[in-house]
Amino acid sequence: MSNTLQPLSDHWRNRYLLMRHGHSQANQQGVIVSSPERGIENFGLSEYGEQQLSQLVADWQWPVPTRVVHSDFLRTTQTAARVAARFGLVPSVDKRLRERNFGELEGQGDDHYPSVWALDAEDAEHRHHQVEALSAVAQRMQAVIADWEQQVSGDTILLVSHGDPLQILLTALAKKPLTQHREQPPLLPASITQVGG
């Protein structure tokens, strides 16, 4: 699954591959796992997610990454490790790539997502249920790219993160209102979207 966006600026110094983790045990169980307390050591890839990644690395059809950076959650760590191993790279952690924190909805059914997204569509700053605001997610995700843009040039950097943060990031990069982040097609597990470069 590939989504390629046109470079959003003439001044990108690097190319970025934005990857959602493979299908996870949380996806399989239909539960929200967004807190570091639960997500760092538990809820890794499902068996299907492992199969997805085997296929993905065997049939790699994107530019070859020179760096792999990932959220410290188990599902993203395992995803990044599989891709990094394929290209002989050592992955590194950036906590800013973590899942959006869904606050009081942690551990509940993923059927709660649509109610949060409905609130998102009205207010990018809302914190209902102690959910992390869209603006806060966008800020930390964009900061990751901004930092790499200052540090290196000519690299292809694979950023392994989660569905909501990546959709919010892509919305911000496209200079659209963050309230519209659910208006684009959802990013599927193990999908890669190329930006910049």
UniProtKB/TrEMBL annotation:
Checking SMART domains in the record gives:
PGAM
- The source's superkingdom equals Bacteria
Q: Which GO terms describe its molecular function?
A: hydrolase activity
| Keywords on record | Hydrolase
Q: What class of enzyme is it?
A: hydrolase
Quote the Gene3D superfamilies the UniProt record gives. Phosphoglycerate mutase-like
InterPro entries (UniProt xref):
His_Pase_superF_clade-1 (IPR013078), His_PPase_superfam (IPR029033)
Which EC numbers characterise this protein's activity in its record? 3.1.3.-
Q: Which Pfam families match?
A: His_Phos_1
Q: What is this protein called?
A: Histidine phosphatase family protein
- Look up and give the organism this protein is from: Halomonas alkaliantarctica
